[in-house]
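Fill in residues.
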């Protein structure tokens, strides 16, 4: 039988006040397990949408809508400086985002309809890194970790890998475009610019730096580059579920077994066939250069159908739902 549920606007009070949405069942009774949804990188709002670049996928709203009928309360929020939340997005460092997640976790656990002894952190993309960092800070406060499209690699390594994929695709372009790319050595020049920017960021001490008329969040990059998520994955003591799609171009699917090796026998991993980084069905092979167009086309599409049964079975097995 399907559950009726409601969504409540909430204020999460921490170093800055964040605005979010708590979704839970209309039914009264015993407190239910709670899930905190941690978003990926970029200026993402509580529903998983961005204004610049424009992307309207409702990813985190869709995850919340999946969880509540399964018997959970789900909390999602606008990142600092995004949507209705306070703060400045471009000045937020990685550890600021972890502290925001920590405040959101405390808010979730304090709600009278939430069982504070059964709370799960669900991270997506960068949110997986934040979830692992938060788990290392508060191992006793979290009863389960779900990493969706996460990686067993540092963000610095992930960026380098993604750039190399782009360069490889540029080098393989055919016709006039390919000729011009090779003639003007576009990949080599792009990598030199990337290395110059990384050096400028590493030497900086300010929250932001200017590079080619753009404002770059230097603090966020510096803190991510200094953090090794692999070390904290080895400290995870609660049950962990890692799910990545076989068509994920941003997080390596072969990181799933590596996460299991680092965490140990309380980890479970799944690679869902034909699922991409936005947790949607993607049957065709798509290049890094075409990803933005693909994601825009997937607006309104449902989550991959294999995601819910895997998640539900894992939660039930570990008495988290």
């Amino acid at each position: 039988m399907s559950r009726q549920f409601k969504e409540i606007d909430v204020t999460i009070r921490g170093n800055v006040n964040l605005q979010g949405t708590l979704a839970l069942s209309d039914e009264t009774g015993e407190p239910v397990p709670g899930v905190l949804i941690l978003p990926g990188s970029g200026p993402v709002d509580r529903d998983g949408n961005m204004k610049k670049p424009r992307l309207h996928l409702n990813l985190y709203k869709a995850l919340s809508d999946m969880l509540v009928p399964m018997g959970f309360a789900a909390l999602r929020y606008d990142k600092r400086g995004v949507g209705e939340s306070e703060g400045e997005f471009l000045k937020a460092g990685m550890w600021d985002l972890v502290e925001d997640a920590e405040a959101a976790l405390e808010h979730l656990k304090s709600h009278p309809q939430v069982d504070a002894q059964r709370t799960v952190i669900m991270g997506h993309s960068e949110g997986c890194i934040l979830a692992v960092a938060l788990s290392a800070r508060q191992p006793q406060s979290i009863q389960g970790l779900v990493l969706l499209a996460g990686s067993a690699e540092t963000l610095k390594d992930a960026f380098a890998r993604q750039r190399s994929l782009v360069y490889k695709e540029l080098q393989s372009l055919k016709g006039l475009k390919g000729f011009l790319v090779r003639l003007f050595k576009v990949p080599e020049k792009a990598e030199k610019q990337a290395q110059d920017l990384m050096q400028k960021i590493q030497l900086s001490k300010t929250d932001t730096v200017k590079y080619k008329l753009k404002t770059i969040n230097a603090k966020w990059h510096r803190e991510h580059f200094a953090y090794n998520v692999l070390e904290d994955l080895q400290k995870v003591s609660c049950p962990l579920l890692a799910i990545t799609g076989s068509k994920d171009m941003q997080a390596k699917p072969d990181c799933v077994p590596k996460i299991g090796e680092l965490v140990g026998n309380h980890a479970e991993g799944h690679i869902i066939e034909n699922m991409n980084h936005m947790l949607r069905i993607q049957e065709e092979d798509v290049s890094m250069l075409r990803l933005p167009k693909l994601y825009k086309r997937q607006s309104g599409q449902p989550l991959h159908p294999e995601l819910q049964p895997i998640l539900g079975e894992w939660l039930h097995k570990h008495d988290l739902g």
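The CA atoms of residues 37 and 76 lie 5 Å apart.
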